[in-house]
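note to self: dont lose this again. the chain is below, predicted strucutre after it. 166 aa total, dont forget to put it in the shared folder this time
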Amino acid sequence: MLYSVPLLEYDYRNWAGNHIWVHKQPVPLYSIAVSMLIFGKNTIALRIPSIILSTISILATFKLGKILTSTKVGILAAFLFFINGLIIESTAGRVATDHIDVFFYSLVTISVYLLLRSVKNNSTKSLILGAICTGLAILSKWLPALIVVPVWIFFAYQKQSIVLAP
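---
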């Protein structure tokens, strides 16, 4: 429930304007709940999962740029990701779908990196971790997370013709 005591009248048949809040997917909300269980019920505990994921995304962006082109491109991509105002505001909880979007783009970025690494190195471990991250992305923002699948298929199919940086 968003509020334990409803402030306004509601119609139980209207899922979008109901007393029970069922709008968001479970992974971000459960992650925030676990963080609050560990660190207490405060604003910092609310933001810790988003801070951790967006930080990991910076590293994944660097590694993606490095694999696809060069270390310089990876550094530039990571820097641009790092200073992106929307990402900073989302991580800080200042936009409407804040933490949900942080989980979504972070898990998609990490998934693409892991699946690309699995293609490059024939790594079953990276493939499994990438699939798990894709599943978590689906449980963060539903079907848009499936964008990872065609990207992975493209790189797997084009493996011989694409020259990946060492």
